[in-house]
Fold:
Amino acid sequence: MEFIEALTTITIPFADITLEKIVFAAIVAVIGWIVVKVLITFFRRLLSRASRLPVLVVEFLVRFFSVLLYVILLLLVIAAIGVDVSSVVLGLSAVIGLILGFGLQDTITNLAAGVWLAALRPIDKGEFVEIKGISGTVSAVGIMSTELLKPDNTYITIPNSLVWGNPVINSTRMETRRVEVRVRVAYDSDLNLAIRVATDLMNAHEKVLPSPKPVVIVTELGDSSVNLALRAWTNTSNLWGVQWDLNRDIVRAFKEAGIVIPFPQMDVHLDRMH
Structure:
């Protein structure tokens, strides 16, 4: 009943709406839109220059501020037409309250999660993250959702509540990362030689860091091979390049040293039945 009563308070006197008021409202809308754009630009520059806030927080605040300005502009246009803004606000508040009671709890949750994400920054703009199996570079954290861009340029939006409520794997937050390349060596090859060749290969790479030192470990004695892992540290920005280089070059280095990388194989023995 309160909802119906609130709606009845919205009175739009169509008889009082004249052509002059419509033209005036259109002028208010155009000028207001320009003013809003200028204010948003000024607000963005002010936050970027006068504060040390991260880019992600600045983007979130600018979006929130822009939504507020557009709502104010809408109310000004309605008032310019001749509609009682107070009744509109009262009616809209009742409508919003009813909608919130019937299913916009998730919206409020996403909004609150967006505030926490912007404030605590478990992710930041430009970082490569994985959230619920979805990987991509963070392009923005909006009021309701987080925007990711996958390496193949696929654009993804994830509700903020899912970002805040799930583990986030951040691949680029730290300055250095460890590269691991796995390779197999035949049992009849010289294992110590294989370890030396792999170690020398990592030490010779210009983008492998000298500390911590590169190491080669035996991870498993497989059915047809001794399994090794080459572990080297590098700057995060060089991670994939070093990974690809070591995967490519270890094949050549082992071949030149006479070390065999075996194919998976299985010996089958058949007993003759008498």
